[in-house]
């Protein structure tokens, strides 16, 4: 994460839940955002989508360089982003 970006959780109308970085100048109510260092929550336990802003709780996908996704749901805490960013690439588990 740089000072020009911030971590967010994005949910889609197709029930996808993603975490990644967006530019700070992107509004919270933007219809579409381009996430860098993007991951998708495959499974999660004991939390809703907003709870995932504190970090993943199950399996997540490998990291994609970037993806355009719609509708920001929550901003991540720094600790939450650190947890998403630290997921083991080989087994996709937090």
Structural features, described:
By secondary structure, the protein is mostly beta strands. It has a single domain (5-85), classed as SH3 type barrels (Roll). Helices cover 9% and strands 36% of the residues. The protein contains 1 helix and 5 strands. A hairpin with an 8-residue loop joins strand 2 and strand 3 (32-40). It starts with a strand and ends in a 9-residue tail after the last helix.
Brief descriptors of the model:
94 residues; mainly beta; SH3 type barrels; five-stranded antiparallel β-sheet; 1 helix
* Arrangement of strands in the largest sheet: 4-3-2-1-5
DSSP summary: helix tally = 1
Which CATH first-tier class would you pick? Answer: Mainly Beta
What letter string, H or E per element, gives the SSE order?
Answer: EEEEEH
Indicate the mean pLDDT. Answer: 83
Fraction of residues in helices? under 10%
The CATH topology is given as: SH3 type barrels
Shape: globular
Residue windows where pLDDT falls under 50 for at least 5 positions: none
The major pleated sheet works out as: 5 strands, antiparallel
- Structural class comes to mainly beta
The radius of gyration over CA amounts to: 12 Å
Gap between N and C termini, in Å? 19 Å
Number of domains: 1
Second rung of CATH, namely the architecture: Roll
């Amino acid at each position: 994460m740089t000072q020009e970006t911030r971590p967010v959780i994005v949910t889609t109308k197709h029930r996808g839940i993603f975490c990644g970085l967006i530019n700070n100048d992107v509004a919270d109510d933007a219809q579409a955002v381009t996430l860098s260092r993007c991951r998708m929550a495959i499974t999660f336990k004991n939390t809703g989508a907003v709870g995932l802003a504190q970090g993943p709780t199950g399996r997540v996908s490998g990291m994609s360089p970037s993806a355009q996704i719609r509708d920001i749901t929550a901003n991540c805490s720094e600790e939450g982003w650190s947890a998403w960013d630290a997921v083991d690439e080989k087994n996709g588990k937090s």
